[in-house]
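We close this part of the discussion by returning to an individual protein. In the encoding step, the backbone of a single protein was reduced to a row of integers, each denoting a local shape. The sequence in question and its structure tokens are set out directly beneath this paragraph.
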Amino acid sequence: MRDAEDNRNLTISWRIRFGRFLIRLGSFIRSLAVIAMKPRDLVQFNYLSFSSPGSIEEYSEEQTLDWGLLADEQELFARVPMKQGRIAILGVGGGRMAIPLAKMGHDVTGIDFVPAMVQRALENAEKRGVRIHGVIQDFTALELGTDRFDMIWFPAMLYSYIPTRKWRIEVLSRIWRSLKPGGHVLCRFMYGGPKLIDARKKTVKKIIALLFFGNRGYERGDILWNQSREFLHMFSAENELTSEFREAGFQTVHIAVKHDIRGEAILRKPNDP
């Protein structure tokens, strides 16, 4: 009787191990979607998510707008010594952040790659008694002029939506040109820590990307998020971020990881190039 129980336990243990293997295998296969798409495809992939009617309504709900600047956003903004100025918000959504900043007296420009989001933000601002500017642009190919803004803000986790290190540096370089000397960038990002992914899996994915002409810029930390509806990059170390900021010409004034997976940074364009 005892031997039968032991054999049954052995069988159950084997099945559990096999089940866990299948779960891991399924997760790995799903993760290959990130490398099957080229960087431009990943941006379009995110556009399809944010341009859906459900997303547009979600970002424009009265309850969402009533939140205004969240507590951690207020704390981050308070770190910058600026009384009034020109602010550009990348990914303006329905105007949740733009509206309170405009009420403070700032000249606010909301930028989004979804035309309906920009239109909603303008309408919502007017309803709440303020005026903001709206620009429809892909934030990965910004053309905002030279020395125009005192501050440019990557809200939520927008910086992590940009695929590949090379492309993020290019975006930062465009922002650098649009900032006035001494201007600041407020940057929010997603953080996964140093043990983000097994190095062997990274090697396998890089090989697959090369063989199938996919995302050859694949990085450790590239994942699908929000029930696999959005692409984002989770950073694994602070120096991964600061090296990008430095290469684009910025000084890192502040950087911190908050709430385990979310981080923030303040960058400054030097007064003298």
